[in-house]
Hints:
- Two copies of one chain form a homodimer.
- Chain A is α+β, with helices and mostly antiparallel strands.
- Chain A is about 30% helix and about 25% strand.
- In chain A, strand 20 (about 345) and strand 21 (about 350-355) form a beta hairpin.
Amino acid sequence: MKKRKIRKKSTGAFLYFGPPTDEAEIRYHTGFMAPDALFFLRLGRIHHLVVSVLEEGRARRTARHAEIWNFERLGLPEKGARPADVALALLKKVKVRRVFVTNEFPMVLADALRAAGLRVEAETGTREGARAVKTAWEIRQIANAQRATAKAMRRARAILREADIRRAGALFWQGRPLTSERLRAEIEIELLRQEYLSEGTIVACGAEGADPHSRGHGPLRAGKLIILDIFPRHRVTGYWGDMTRTVVKGQATPEQVRRYRAVCRAQTAALRAIRPGVSGATVHGQVAAVIERAGYPRRRVRNREEGFIHGTGHGVGLQIHEAPRISTRDNPLRAGHVVTVEPGVYAHPIGGVRMEDLVVVTRKGCRILARAPKALVIP
Amino acid sequence: MKKRKIRKKSTGAFLYFGPPTDEAEIRYHTGFMAPDALFFLRLGRIHHLVVSVLEEGRARRTARHAEIWNFERLGLPEKGARPADVALALLKKVKVRRVFVTNEFPMVLADALRAAGLRVEAETGTREGARAVKTAWEIRQIANAQRATAKAMRRARAILREADIRRAGALFWQGRPLTSERLRAEIEIELLRQEYLSEGTIVACGAEGADPHSRGHGPLRAGKLIILDIFPRHRVTGYWGDMTRTVVKGQATPEQVRRYRAVCRAQTAALRAIRPGVSGATVHGQVAAVIERAGYPRRRVRNREEGFIHGTGHGVGLQIHEAPRISTRDNPLRAGHVVTVEPGVYAHPIGGVRMEDLVVVTRKGCRILARAPKALVIP
C-alpha cells in the first residue's frame, strides 16, 4: 500500500465523513483504514484527518500524506463535541469556507455547517470516476483477490464433486445433507484462510437462483442449476474480487444446457467488445441482444422479471460496486478500468444461469484477471 | 423474526435511505434485509418500501407490515430515475409533505426534496432510543449470538493451550508459528460454522494491545498479554454478540496479574451497579474510580493515552454499537437494554487488559447473556 503514488492534482476542499463510501475514499487517498466515523479533509495533496484518541497512534503509523488532528489540537473538549463542532473547528483551523462533499454526506452535518455560514456543495460525479482507473499496484491487489476467489470456487466445485446423490436428488457431503449454508461456509472458510472476508456469497439452487439477490438456503439438489457467486474483500488492502459460476451436479437437462450456452456466448461477446473508448451501453446492448436472440427476451411473467434482468457489469476496487457501470447508461470505458462481465438469464422455476469474470481494460481490449473452470456439469 | 410484534405507535413520516444505519432500522421494523440502498417510509404502522426489481420477490416474501413499491407503480422509468426522483414519487403517492430523517440521511437527497418544497427534518434522538429496549425475542437472538461468541472464545483458548512455546517465547501451533492472523482466522471459521460473520476480531499481543482499536498482527508470544475481542453478527437475523478476554500463554508477570485483577474488580463493580434507573454515567464513574484506585489513572504519556481510555459499555442489537452508552454521558438504563460491560486498562509497552461481557438489564439488576472462562493464564 505504501508504493502507490498520488497521481492526480485536485483543487478545492473535499470533506468526507465516515463510512461506508467515504471510508473507501479515505483509504484510497491515505491507505488508512477508518472503521469509525471521522473527518477527512482533502486539500490538494494534503489530507487532514481528525481521529479519536483511540485511532491516533494507528493513524500516525499508517496514513500517508496526512496531517493528523486530535480534539485537543482542534481546541475541543475530549468529550461532548458533536460531529458538526469537529468539522467547524477543523475548517476554521485550515481557513476553508467552502467544501465539496460526497453523495453520502449527512444532511444534519451539512445543515450545521451551512448555519455557520459555510458553503457545502455536492461533488458532481468526478470522485468515483477518479478511482475507476486503477494503478498497476491496484490491479495487482484486485488480481490477487480474484485468484483467491478462483481458489474458493475450485473448492466449491471439489465439494460438489465429492458429494453423493441420494434419494430425490438430495446431495450429501461427509455424511450430512449438503445445504447452501454449508457450502457457503466452506467457501468462506477457504477465503478466510487466505485473509479474505466474504459476507454475501450466493449459493442458490433451482428456483432460488431466479432472484439474482437471493443468497440461497436449504438443501442442494442434483439436476438443478446452482449459482455460485463469490465476492470477497482482502482484510488488509480492502480490495475485492468477484466471480460467478453456474453448475449442475449429476446430469443437466437440454434446457439448462441451452441457457448455459446462451450466457457463455453473451459473455464472449462482451469480452470481445470491451476496449478503451467503447461505451458500456454499447457492450451491454450487444450482450442483451445475444441473450434475446437465443430465445430469452426480458419480460414480465406473473409479476416476475425473466430473461437478462440486470446490467452486464460494474467496476470493482475498494468498493464491490463502483464506477464504471456496463449497463444501459452511457459510460465510456478506459484503459485501467476493472469491471465484471456477468451476463445471466433467469426464469421461474428453472432458476438462473450467470457467468462472471473480472477483467482489466487494456490498451487494445481486456484481460481476464484470474481464471477458474467453467464447465456446467459436475459429475 | 416473524413472531416479533410492533409495540410502539409512532406519529409522523420517517424516511430512510439505504445502509448502514438505516439498514438496521429497516430490518428492525420489517425483518427485511436490504443490502442495497432503497427507500423506506414509515407512516405509523405501515412501512412503504421501494425496492428494485431484483429485490421485489424477496421483499414480498420477507417484509412485514410492508407495502412494496416498484418503479412501475411509482410511475417512474425502470432506468435513469435518480434517488431523489424515487423519493419524490413515493412521497407524492402517499401525500406526505414533511418527513423526518436519520443522522445518516444524505445532504444531496435532502437538498433535492427541499428544492421540491418538502420539509425535511432530522429526527432528534428518539429513534435509536426506541430500538434500545429489546423484546424477549430480540434478547434470545442476542443471547444466541453471545453463546456462539463464547464458543469461539473457547476455541481460541484451546488453540493457545495446544500451542508450544519455542525459542524467545514464540508460539507454534500445528507445526507453524501461531500469529494473530492465524488465530483470528480460526476464531472466525468457528463462527462461520455457526452461521455468524465476523470481520474485526481483535487478537492483539503485547504492545499492540495498548491501542484498543488495533486488530493485531504477526507472531503471538508467551508471557505477553493477548486481548481476544470477538464480535460476530448472525448472517440471517443480523443480531450481534460481543465478548473480550485477556490471556497470557505460559506465565504471567505480577504486574500483568495486578492489571488483570483491577479490571476484574472494575467489571464486578459495573455488574453490581447496573439496574433500571441508574445513569450510565454513574456506572462508568464507579468503574473508572476502581481502576484509578488500583493505581492506573487515565493520563497522557509521551503522546499516548493510558489507563482506562474508553467507555464502560454500549448497547448491542442490530448494530454493534447502539444506544444506550455507558460512558461519561448521562444515559439512564432501562429494563430490556442489552449492553456490554467492558472495562480495560492500557499502557505502552505492556499492552492492554480488557474484560467484556454482554448483559441484559433486568427489573432488579442485570443478567450475563453467556459465560466463558475468564482465567488470565493459559498453561
